Amino acid sequence: MSLDLLTYLFIGGSFALYIGIAIWARAGSTKEFYVAGGGVPPIANGMATAADWMSAASFISLAGLISFVGRDGSAYLMGWTGGYVLLALLLAPYLRKFGKFTVPDFVGDRYGSSTARIIAVVCTIVISFTYVAGQMRGVGIVFSRYLHVDINTGVIVGMAIVFFYAVLGGMKGITYTQVAQYCVLILAFTVPAFFLSSQITGHFLPQLGLGATLESGQSVLATLDQLSVDLGFSQYTSGKKSTIDIFFLTVALMCGTAGLPHVIVRFFTVPRVKDARTTGGYALIFIALLYTAVPGVAGFGRVNLIQEVNGPQNTGTAYAEMPSWFKNWENAGLLAWNDRNGDGVVQYAAGAAFDAKKGKPAFIEERGEHGQRMTSNAKTDASFDAAKQPFANEVYVDRDIMVLANPEIAQLPGWVIALVAAGAVAAALSTAAGLLLVISTAISHDLMKKTINPNISDKQELMYARMAAVVAICIAGYFGINPPGFVAQVVALAFGIACASVFPTLMLGIFYKRMNTQGAIAGMLVGLVSTVGYMWYFVFGGGSSADYFMGISPGGFGTVGMILHFIVAYVVAQMTPPPSEEMQHIVEDLRIPRGAGVAHDH
User: Fold this and answer.
1) Which of 65, 262, 304, 578 has its C-alpha lying 20 to 30 A from 568's C-alpha?
2) How far does Cα 34 stand from its chain's mean position?
C-alpha cells in the first residue's frame, strides 16, 4: 500500500473518529458547552488536558527546536512541564472550588468588577489568538506535505474540521474528542521514537538514547557536538542564550502554563475539588510520556539530517542522488536548496542558504537545472569562493518539519510515517479546539451574559457562543496563513503574555485576601501592556536583539511583566480600600474552610 494511501487512511480515520465523538457528545446546554456538565472522570480529564496542552508546539516544533538550538531548548522542556506542577498545586483546586466557568468569571466575581472582568476577557483573547496561530500553522505544515496541498489550503482544511466538532460539541464534545486525540498523538510520537532509538543506538527507550555509545565509540551527544563543530555550528551541548535569558524564559513558560485560560478551564469539568488536583497529576504523567522522549528524538533527528544530506564523508551529496524525503519536503515548500557554487552538490553547514534580509525563501513554479524547486531569492553567489570556503551552507530547513520528516529520513515503515501525520494533526487540532472554545466562552458568557445583557436566555447564550467560535476560527485561520514565526516561537509568546497578565491575578486572588479591584486592574494592565509592547517591538517592530532589556528575549519578558504586575498590584492595593469583609472570608474559605483544625467536644 502506498504511503499516500496509508496517510489518507490514518488521517481520514482519525477525523471520522473525532467527528463521530462530537456528534455523540453534542452539547445541549451552556453548562455542557462550557464545562462538559462538570462530570468528566479525572483520568479522562487528565488525558484531555494533556492533549489540550500538548499542541503542535509540543508534537511538531519542540523536538525541531531542540535539534537546531541544542541545550537552549531545555528551557522549553523545564518550563512547560514545571508549569503543570504549579497549576496542580497552586491554582486548579482553588479555582475549581470557587466554581466559576472561566478565568474572566473568576476575576469578575473575586474582584467584584465588570472592568476587571472585561480586562481579563481581553487578556484571554490575546493569549488564545496568539497561541492558536501556532496550531493552525502546524495543521498547514502537515497537510502541505501529506495531502500535497500548499500550507494555506492545509490551514483551511484544518479550520473546517475544528469548526465541526468545536462549534457542535462544545466542551463536552471537545473533552472526549481530546481523549481520543491524546491516544493518537502519544502513539504517533513514541512509536517512531522507539524505532529511531533502536535503529541508531540499539536502545529501545529514546529516554536513554542520547547517552548511548555508537559504532564510532562516541555517545550520541558527543557525535552531535563533533558534527556541529565540523560544520561551523556551535556545540550542541553548549548554549548561545545568556543564563539570565534562559532563566527568565523558563519562568515565563512555567508561570504561563499555569495561567493558560484554555488549560485552567479543564479543571472546571470534574465533579469535585479533589478531582481537580488528581486531574493535574494524571495530566503530568501523560505529558511526561512524550516530553521525556523529546530530547532523544531531537538528537536522533539532527544526526540523521546531517548524515543524510552531507553523506558519510561530510562532503555533500549530489542533488540527483538525494533521497525522496528531501524532494518531498522541498515540494511542500518547507525545505530548499540553493546551489550557491553551481556544482550540483547539496551541502549543509552553518550560515544562511539565502539572503537573510529577504527572510524565508519564497517558492516559485520554476525548476532549476538539476530539477530542484526554485525560489525567488535563489541565485548563484558571485562572491562565493570554493577555495576559501570549501563547505558553505546551501540548505534551508524549516525546523518545524523535523519530527514529521524523521521517520522518512530514517526509512521507517510507511504505516509509522502515516501514524506520525495523524498524530501531528491530532496535536494541533486538539489545542486549537480548546483555545477557540475559550475565546467563544469569554465573548458569550463573560461579555454578553455577565456584562452586556444579563437577561439573555440559556439558548441565546449558547447561540452567541457558537457564533463567536465561528468568528474566532476565521481569525485563527488568518494567523495560521500569516504566522509571526515558527510554531514553538509563536506559542512561547502566548505563554509570556499569560505569565504577565493572568497568572499573578489568579495567585493574588487566591492567596492574598487584601487584594482589591483597583490593584487587580492596575496589575493586569501593566503586565499585559508592558509584555505585549515589548514583544511587538522586538518581533514585529524591527527592534534589534542588541537592545534587549538585560539581554532578555521577547519570550522571556513575560517574567519581567509578571514581576511588574505583582509590584504594581500590591502597591495599588495598599493605597486603596480593602475588599469587603465578606469577600475576604470567601478567600479564606477558598484555601482553608473556616473551622478546619478546630477541636470539638462530642
Assistant:
1) 262
2) 22
Are 31 and 97 within one domain? yes
- Both 334 and 389 in a single domain? yes
- C-alpha–C-alpha distance, residues 496 and 58, integer Å: 16
- Tell me 553's DSSP state: -
Q: Are 299 and 218 in contact (CB under 8 A)?
A: no
CB 163 within 8 Å of CB 378: no
Pair 73, 171 in one domain: yes
Q: Which of 505, 538, 557 is the last residue of a domain?
A: 505
pLDDT at residue 165, rounded to an integer: 61
Most trustworthy range by pLDDT among 169-173, 324-328, 431-435, 482-486: 324-328
Here the CATH number for the domain that contains residue 230 is: 1.20.1730.10
Bridge partners for 346 per DSSP: 317
Query: Cα separation of 169 and 23, whole Å?
Result: 7
Among the listed residues 302, 388, 375, the one whose alpha carbon sits nearest the alpha carbon of residue 339 = 375
**Spatial distance between the Cα atoms of 10 and 142, rounded to a whole number of angstroms:** 13
In the structure grid, which three cell numbers stand for residue 66, read together?
Answer: 531542540
DSSP structure class, residue 352: -
Kindly state whether residue 519 falls inside one of the protein's structural domains.
Answer: no
Domain that holds residue 251: 3-301+417-505
**pLDDT tens digit sequence for 192-234:** 898 888 888 877 888 887 777 777 777 888 888 888 888 888 8
Is 543 domain-assigned? no
Q: Is the pTM of this model over 0.70?
A: yes
Q: Are residues 10 and 132 in the same domain?
A: yes
Cell numbers placing 19: 467527528
Residue 67 CB contacts under 8 Å (≥ 6 apart), including other chains: 298, 299, 301, 302, 305, 399, 402
| CA–CA separation, 580 and 585 (whole Å) | 9
